[in-house]
Each structure stands twice: as C-alpha cells, then as structure tokens.
Amino acid sequence: MKKSEPKKDKFGLLLGDEDSESKDGSGSGEGESSEPEAEAEEQQVPKKKKVELSLEDLERAGYKSGPSVLLVKPPVDEGPSDWTWGKGRPKGQKDDEGDDRAATRDAVAGVNAAAEAAVKAMAHAAELREAAKAERLEAAAERNKPLSFNQKEKRKRDTGQASRGKSYVEESKRQARDFGVYSGFD
User: Fold this and answer.
1) In this structure, are residues 42 and 4 in contact, taking their beta carbons and an 8 Å threshold?
2) Domain ranges of the chain
3) Which of 108, 140, 150, 161 could staple 156 via S-S, CB 3.0–4.6 A?
4) How far apart are CA 107 and CA 111, in angstroms?
5) Which residues of 19-39 are buried (b: 16+ CB within 10 A; e: fewer)?
6) Measured CA distances, 89 to 84, 85, 93, 96, 101 (Å)
7) What does the DSSP assignment read for 81-124?
8) Per-residue pLDDT tens for 39-53?
9) pLDDT at residue 97 above 70?
C-alpha cells in the first residue's frame, strides 16, 4: 500500500481537509479503505490547463490599451544645450530696451541717492553715539575719583539728603511721631 503525499499549493502550504490523514491511511486506523480504486482517484489530481490570453479577450473583459512606447518618436538633437540665464523673451526676438532701460535707470538713480543719504545719516548717528559714550565715561571717571568731605556734603544738600548730627532727643521725638504722638515741643 503506497502512501500519497499531501497536496501543496504554489507557496508550499499544505492543502486539503483536516481529515486528510484518515483518508490516506496514515490516520488512527479508523475508516481505512482497502480499495485500490479509492486511492487511485485520490492520487489523480486534475492538471490545470494553461489558458492562452489574447488582446481580444482582454478587451472583451474591459481592459484598454494605452499608447505604445514603440510608437514614440526619438528626441531630436537641436545642437549643444545653452543653460545660461535667459532674458524672458523668445530666442529670435531682438532687444528693444531703449525706453525701458532709461526709465529703470532714472528710478535706480533716485533709489541710489536715498541710499547714500541713509548711509550718511547712519554714520552721523554712530558718531553721536560714540561722543555720548565718551561723555558718559568721563562723567563716570569723575564720580569715581575720591571727593573731599565738603564736596560730599554739598552733593547731599543739593539732592535733599543732608544729614545732621542726631541726638538722643531728636531720635526719640521721631519715633514718637511714628506712633502718632505729637508733643508740640520741637
């Protein structure tokens, strides 16, 4: 008794029923068939016929053909390529720029004059900033040099920060005023 090999699909996966083991005789022994005809029928697998497709068959199925690549004409060589920047005109057109160039030149002259004036103004502003910075540095240097006692006192008087020698009585009166006590004896 010859064992039949399991059926496989084109990807190598096993095909068939879950009961295929019991049908080919390799099962548990139940339902084994001893008839050689049954085995012969199982071994004979109908072979698929190779189907020939034609263009007419595909057109009847709804497929349409597009333009053929074989019918496309080859590109015509126009000589060496010119990759320089163009002027926005067709290749054969002459340059007629007399009026346009004059108008553009006049407009640019006005813009150039305004730009020169702006540059001069910026240079003058930079000079003023440098002068102001130098004055601030001189003032800072004068403030940092040591002052005499009389100069310090004069500066305090000018800013309203004059300090007098404080006595115990004046200090106690000031504290009393902070608490709302006014004696009238100042």
Assistant:
1) yes
2) 103-160
3) 161
4) 6
5) ebebbbbeeeeeeeeeeeeeb
6) 13, 11, 7, 11, 16
7) ---SPP-SS-TT-----HHHHHHHHHHHHHHHHHHHHHHHHHHH
8) 666 667 677 778 888
9) no
